[in-house]
């Protein structure tokens, strides 16, 4: 079967993954309103294409944190890639290296950060981080990834507690015995208590606050990008605390149900930041025109979560490459059909605001 669009990969994954695994990846919080709205919000946005602009040559390249990538789509941090494909994150890393874009490695990887670097030594990578009650755990992993050449830290800030994902509760979701959260291998041996997503329950620190951003800056020289901001107030605080970037994100609709779609929160954040730091987005990207709309509304780059996992489920590294390639091709086409020859020509004039 020819894979033509990202939905084809979704259908394949739904058919071929176990129910518990599919439910885990697909899950949203509570009634899944925010998860679903992430997709629907793009369909409400209309483009204003310009014509007769000579789009015979187009260039999709951009930069993130000063590094050039081939097009403005990276891989968002998602957990447990080995559930979808036996090579897991190693395959994801190779695919993003091959397409020359950014891969944000999840703390909750089923391959270690060392294995990922060994598999794709020239890949451009950021590392997604949680702050734990035991700060030493967070500190250890920061120093490990800094030494391995990861280029930025992505601090996820929207999980003081895990959202209520009904199907995971119904399925009593657990990692199968042959898989583990590799980055913490051996660190939790002494605990025999309840587990949540592969590590002991209550490991995450709900007391995390802005002062932890300063703490993180004190232990690393890497740029810090905050993931999980949805309001202009928090965007302003992020700038004031000296971070280098923001990922506008609602955690794929897996945390607070009833919050805004990521794309609906983007404009107010871009307007507040006013170019002082880079703004990125994840949540709901399924087509090249979704990418174009995000950039027109001010995102520097977008990141895909679930579609990368569907690509893995389809054919490992090759599947992730295909997903990225389809998005790249669709983005290039949408750009050309809108009259944009390069990403610098994409701006808000492309968006029909009366329809928002």
Automatic annotation (TrEMBL):
Glyoxylate binds at residues 24, 165, 251, 254. GO terms for molecular function: (S)-2-hydroxy-acid oxidase activity; FMN binding. It is an enzyme of class 1 (oxidoreductase). It catalyses: 2-hydroxyoctanoate + O2 = 2-oxooctanoate + H2O2; a (2S)-2-hydroxycarboxylate + O2 = a 2-oxocarboxylate + H2O2. The active site is at 251 (proton acceptor). Transmembrane segments: none annotated. It comes from the Eukaryota. Keywords: Flavoprotein, FMN, Oxidoreductase. One of its GO terms (biological process) is fatty acid alpha-oxidation. SUPFAM superfamilies: FMN-linked oxidoreductases (SSF51395). Its cofactor is FMN. Its EC number is 1.1.3.15. Coiled coil: none annotated. FMN binds at residues 77-79, 106, 128, 130, 156, 227, 249, 282-286, 305-306. The keyword Flavoprotein applies. Belongs to the FMN-dependent alpha-hydroxy acid dehydrogenase family. This is (S)-2-hydroxy-acid oxidase.
């Amino acid at each position: 079967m020819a894979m033509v669009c990202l939905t084809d990969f979704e259908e394949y994954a739904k058919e071929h993954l176990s129910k518990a695994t599919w439910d885990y990846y697909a899950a949203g919080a509570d009634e899944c309103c925010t998860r679903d709205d992430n997709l629907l919000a793009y369909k409400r946005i209309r483009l204003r294409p310009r014509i007769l602009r000579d789009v015979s040559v187009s260039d999709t390249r951009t930069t993130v944190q000063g590094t050039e990538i081939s097009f403005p789509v990276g891989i968002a941090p998602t957990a447990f890639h080995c559930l979808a494909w036996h090579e897991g994150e190693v395959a994801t890393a190779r695919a993003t290296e091959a397409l020359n874009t950014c891969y944000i490695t999840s703390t909750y990887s089923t391959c270690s950060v060392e294995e990922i670097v060994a598999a794709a030594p020239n890949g451009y990578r950021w590392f997604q981080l949680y702050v734990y009650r035991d700060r030493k755990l967070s500190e250890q992993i920061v120093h490990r990834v800094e030494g391995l050449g990861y280029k930025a830290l992505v601090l996820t800030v929207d999980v003081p507690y895990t959202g209520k994902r009904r199907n995971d509760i119904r399925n009593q979701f657990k990692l199968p015995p042959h898989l583990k959260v590799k980055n913490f291998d051996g660190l939790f041996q002494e605990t025999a208590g309840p587990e949540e997503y592969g590590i002991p329950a209550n490991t995450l620190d709900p007391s995390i606050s802005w002062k932890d951003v300063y703490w993180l800056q004190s232990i690393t020289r890497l740029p810090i990008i905050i993931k999980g901001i949805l309001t202009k107030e928090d965007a302003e605080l992020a700038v004031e605390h000296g971070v280098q970037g923001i990922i506008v994100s609602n955690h794929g609709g897996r945390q607070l149900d009833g919050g805004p779609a990521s794309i609906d929160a983007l404009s107010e954040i871009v307007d507040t930041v006013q170019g002082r730091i880079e703004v990125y987005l994840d949540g709901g990207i399924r087509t090249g025109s979704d990418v174009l709309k995000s950039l027109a509304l001010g995102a520097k780059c977008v990141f895909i979560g679930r579609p990368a996992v569907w690509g893995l489920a389809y054919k490992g590294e090759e599947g992730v490459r295909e997903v990225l390639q389809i998005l790249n091709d669709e983005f290039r086409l949408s750009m050309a059909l809108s009259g944009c020859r390069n990403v610098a020509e994409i701006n808000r004039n492309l968006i029909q605001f009366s329809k928002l």
